[in-house]
Amino acid sequence: MTLDEHVVLLNAAGEAVGTAPKAVVHGTDTPLHLAFSCYVFDDEGRVLLSRRASHKATWPGVWTNSVCGHPLPGEAPADAVARRLSYELGLTAGHIELILPGFAYRAVMPDGTVEHEMCPVYRAVVAGDPRPNPDEVGDARWMPWKEFADDVTSGLLAISPWCGEQVPLLTALGPDPSAWPAGDPAGLPPAARPGRTT
Fold first, then answer.
1. What CATH number has the domain spanning 6-177?
2. pLDDT score of 196
3. Which of 115, 131, 160, 172 is the most exposed place for a label (fewest CB within 10 A)?
4. pTM of the entire structure?
C-alpha cells in the first residue's frame, strides 16, 4: 500500500466528514475514523489469527483477529476486507458477510497512541493457507474457534483490544461461527452503508 493511502474521518453519528492520510492519522489525539475487522474461517470451522508485524504503528507484535484495515474513500467495507485479505494474507474469500455492523471502540497504547474507530465486523470463509505479507503480518495460525474464544475471554491469550471486545459479542451469537446471523447493513455507520453518496 502506498504512503498516501487515506482513511475516512467520521463524526459521532458515523457520517463522513473528510479524509486524512493513514500514515499520520494515528497519534495521541486520533480522530474517529472508519475501519473494519474480519474473522476468517476455514471449512473445519477454525479461525485464522494474525500477529501484527513488529514495526506496525499500533499494537506491534500483538495477536489479533484475521485481518483489520480501513476502507478507502468511496470503498465499501466488504471490498476493503477482500483487498486487505489478499494484500496481507494472500487469501481470496469465497464469502464475506457482515456480522457486527455497529461495533466501535477507542483504545490507548502505553505510549499514548490512540486507536479510535467505527469498525464493522465481518466473517469470511477461505480455502487454503495464508501467505503472510511481512510488511503487515508477523505470523499467522489457525485455531479452533471455541479454544480461541475461551482463551480470549479467560485472559489466557493476549490479544488486541478491539479483538478482546469483539470476541464476547461474537460468542453471544452462538457457538458455531457458520451459524451466526448476518448483521443488518442499516446498522452500519452512515459512511459505510450501501448506496451512500459520500
1. 3.90.79.10
2. 60
3. 172
4. 0.94
| Residue 23: per-residue pLDDT | 86
- Could you state, in order of their start, the residue ranges of all structural domains in the chain? 6-177
- The Cα 21–Cα 13 span in angstroms is 21
- CA dist., res. 115 & res. 25, Å (int): 9
| Average pLDDT of the segment spanning 129-144 | 96
pLDDT tens per residue across span 69-111? 999 999 999 999 999 999 999 999 989 999 999 999 999 999 9
Taking the C-alpha atoms of residue 76 and residue 43, their distance in angstroms, rounded to an integer, is 26
Backbone phi, psi, residue 137, to 5°:
-125, 125
Q: Dihedral, CA atoms, 194, 33, 55, 107, nearest 10 degrees?
A: -120
Long-range contacts of 179-182 (CB under 8 A, 24+ apart): 180/99, 180/123, 181/99, 182/97, 182/98, 182/99
- In the chain, which residue ranges form alpha helices assigned H by DSSP? 22-25, 77-89, 145-154, 161-171
Q: Is residue 99 within 8 Å of residue 121, measured between CB atoms?
A: yes
Helical (H) or strand (E) element with 158: none
